[in-house]
Input
Amino acid sequence: MNEASVVVCPVCGRKNRIPAAARGVPRCGNCHSPLPWIAEADDATYAAVAEQGPLPALVDLWAPWCGPCRMVSPALEALARSHAGRVKLVKVNVDESPQVSQRYGVQGIPTLLVLNRGEVVARQTGAAPEHALRAWLDDALAKISASTSPAG
Output
C-alpha cells in the first residue's frame, strides 16, 4: 500500500510521481506548484503515511461496500486538490485495516479525521456535502494554524 501514485499537476499538466510517505510537501517537478497528495494506508503503513508527514492529514476511514463512503470520496478528492500543499488525504479501508479502525473506535463509516502530527484535531462521522466538509476542514486547519503560531 505504500506505493507511489501519479498525479497530474493542476497548473501545468505535467505528470508527477508522489510517494505515499515523504518528509517534504509534493511539488510539481516542472512548475514547482504544490500537488494534491492522496495516499492509501493500511495497518502496516498507517503511522508512516498519516502521522509522520509534514502536513496535517485528512483521514478517510471507509469501505468499498459503503454507499455513503463512495458518495463522499469525490468531495474529499476535491478538497485534497483545493488544499494542495496544506493537507494530505489518506484513505484507509476499514475492512483491510482493523487495527486503525479499532484505534479510533470507528462505529460508523465514513469516519473522517483531521490529524496534526498524529493527534486528532477534528472528527466527522457520516457523509456530508462538499461545502460542509470544506467548512469542517478549514475550521480544523485554522485550529492547527492557531496552535502552531507564535502567539498561540
In short: The first helix runs from residue 46 to 51. The two ends are 37 Å apart (CA to CA). The CA atoms of residues 58 and 114 lie 5 Å apart. The domain at 37-148 is CATH 3.40.30.10 (Glutaredoxin).
